[in-house]
Design brief:
about 650 residues; alpha/beta; disordered C terminus
Length: about 650
């Protein structure tokens, strides 16, 4: 009996056809049994076929009920009709409903191959994925140029995730808000590590492939990097048949695996060291108050300025100095020679440029990166003193621990102009905090960096730490909490704790890592730099996929050495002197630097203004700082791992 039940179970699980066959067998059994019964009890039936047909009609159509005469026929007809409702109709509806539900789940899971070409493919789902999609959908001009270059008729984004259901679709739809468009955004089920998953999203026909990399709270980010590299190798191997591979933009946890990723991929690939970029931004913004508004404007989609790259064609400019004068509504910050890929930021004014070279701009619109007029170089009749603005930060308090902290420490320690004292406070046991960067290990030995294990969520403990003794406070999103919302809640709580017990917190410089853009409102925007790390990396990944040259530009702009963003102060002896941005640009050029904006202060209101326009002018006493691109020596900084 057990064997029979097992065989019957396996038979039913074979699919819809077998279940329908089972339902048909039940219908046939009822029809034959009822036919045989009425044949024996009702003398009006003489032929077996006639009796079975009579029974089958009553079983399948209740409209015959009442047409029969005689107690026997009516009784059997009633029973058969009721069984028809219960057995035939009920069983058929149940089978078809189950089949339809399975079909809908199969469709929702996204296993049907897409029929797109020249689409943007995102391989993997992490906390960055919705932000990447949003950045792509909100980017307009750059997307238009990308579509034109790739020959696509419209923007199509395909996401390959290892688990696709209605909940994931709702999460994506909620993240995109009004930007949600099921015709432009498609989810597909599969693993980027397997060829069938890659074929399901037509990877060979994609214009660009984005690999978001390790997500928040990934226990083994090194393993996640290996998966990214393996995916690149799989795409490269499969693309050999098509003799070309799409542009790949890959986010890695460890920057030292970049060469391995490039070796694994046969086509064009841009490697983004995601955690390193965030660590650089946090460290530099902690050391230099006022730097975050500059980075925020350049590394996010807003109505202000962005970084653009445009190739020279027939423009009447032959030197960098001429180029800087020919674009009054944009700032030329660099050039990419036609025979090289590496950008040259803050090039010398007398550097020659020619057709085919690409200029790098800070501008509000791509249209501003076209020659408007050729102006004469300004000749200032005043020569103010030009002073570097050094960081006043000597002590730094870091609250929270994550895999980014060693990289943040390495960036802070690379700032050699003044010695720093750094204390790292976290709940994570000290012996579990993995550090492999040699400069941080050396700093531990000489007590420059101290690690403290305590619960800084407790106000009494925070008072014992004495945050008032530190020049800058960094709040790190704690990945041990395992969830972005919970990590942000802990960061906000830590900030409010410090704000409550330290009346002078507004005088402290606070930098907070936030994982959800909606939580920025919980921080005082005038006194706290809230860095939304997923949004920054999502912006970099999405924009590099649309314009490959931006990868190296963003990398160089975030370095603490080489050509980077600096502040300069002016000292003028002329009262009420009015100076224009073109004069400031000429003054910066005479110092071998490129002016990109100003920080003004008037009546207590501090304002950062990038690319204000050549004709913009201010009173000199209102200019608190000039924002420039300048050179910083490397001082033997060690490469991070």
């Amino acid at each position: 009996m057990t064997d029979l039940r097992f065989t019957f179970e396996r038979w039913l699980l074979r699919g819809l056809h077998y279940r329908l066959l089972f339902a048909a067998a039940i219908v046939a059994f009822v029809a034959i049994s009822a036919g045989a019964l009425v044949l024996m009890l009702d003398p009006n039936f003489e032929e077996p076929g006639e009796a079975v047909w009579w029974s089958f009609l009553r079983l399948t159509d209740p409209g015959y009920l009442g047409d029969d005469e005689g107690v026997v026929s009516r009784s059997i007809s009633t029973v058969v009709t009721v069984l028809g409702y219960i057995v035939f109709l009920g069983l058929l509806i149940a089978i078809l409903t189950q089949w339809m539900n399975a079909l809908i789940l199969r469709v929702e899971s996204g296993i049907t191959p897409v029929a797109f070409k020249n689409h943007i493919l995102i391989l993997g789902w992490s906390h960055r994925t919705p932000s990447i999609v949003l950045e792509l959908l909100e980017t307009r001009g750059r997307v238009s140029r990308f579509l034109e270059d790739s020959g696509a008729h419209g923007l199509r984004i395909v996401i390959l995730a290892e688990h696709v259901d209605e909940e994931l679709r709702k999460e994506l739809k909620s993240s995109l808000g009004d930007r949600w468009d099921d015709r432009a955004v498609v989810l597909r089920f599969g693993s980027p590590l397997k060829l069938d998953g890659l074929e399901r999203v037509a990877f060979n026909d994609a214009a660009a492939v984005i690999l978001p990399g390790a997500g928040f709270a990934t226990a083994l980010p090194g393993v996640a990097d290996s998966e990214v590299i393996k995916t690149l190798a799989s795409i490269s191997q499969a693309a050999k048949k098509a003799e070309q591979a799409p542009l790949a933009v890959a986010a890695l946890y460890n920057s030292n695996r970049g060469d391995v990723a490039r070796r694994a991929y046969g086509g064009e690939v841009e490697v983004i060291a995601a955690d390193q970029i965030v660590a650089r931004l946090m460290a530099q913004c902690a050391l230099h108050r006022g730097l975050w508004p500059v980075y925020w404007e350049l590394f996010s989609l807003n109505q202000k300025n962005s970084v653009y790259v445009r190739e020279l064609n027939s423009e009447p400019v032959s030197t960098i100095e001429q180029a800087r004068l020919a674009y009054p509504n944009a700032v030329v910050i660099g050039v990419i020679p036609s025979k090289a890929r590496k950008p040259i930021l803050n090039p010398p004014s007398d550097m020659d440029i020619e057709s085919g070279d690409k200029l790098i701009f800070v501008a509000k619109h791509f249209a501003d990166c076209r020659v408007a007029e050729s102006a004469a170089p300004p000749s200032p009749n005043w020569k103010p003193a030009w002073h570097p603005v050094e960081s006043e930060v000597k002590t730094v308090l870091i609250l929270g621990w994550s895999r980014k902290v060693p990289k943040v420490l390495a960036e802070l320690l690379s700032y050699r102009q003044k010695p720093l004292r750094i204390d790292v406070v976290g709940v994570t046991p000290v012996d579990e905090r993995e550090i492999t960067i040699e400069s941080v290990i050396d700093a531990h030995r000489d007590k420059t960096v101290r690690e403290i294990e305590t619960n800084f969520m407790n106000p009494d403990i925070v008072m014992e730490i004495h945050p008032e003794n530190y020049d800058a406070v960094l709040l790190i999103a704690r990945e041990r909490l395992g969830d972005e919302a919970i990590a942000d809640a802990a960061t906000i709580s830590s900030y409010l704790t410090v704000d409550t017990i330290l009346p002078g917190v507004r005088g402290r410089h606070v930098v907070a890592e936030v994982l959800d853009e909606e939580n920025e409102v919980h921080f005082d925007g005038d006194h706290v730099d809230a860095i939304v790390s997923p949004m920054i990396i999502s912006y970099v990944l999405s924009q590099v996929a649309l314009e490959r040259e931006l990868g190296l530009i963003f990398q160089e702009l975030t370095q603490s050495w080489g050509t980077t963003i600096l502040f300069r102060s002016l000292e003028s002896v002329i009262d009420n002197k009015i100076c224009s941005f073109s004069e400031l640009a000429a003054l910066a050029a005479s110092q071998g630097e490129t002016a990109i904006g100003v920080v003004t202060s008037r009546e207590g209101a501090r304002r950062t203004c990038l690319n204000p326009g050549a004709d913009a002018n201010w009173r000199c006493e209102d200019i608190e700082q000039v924002i420039v691109l300048g050179a910083v020596p490397r001082h033997g900084i060690q490469e991070q791992t």
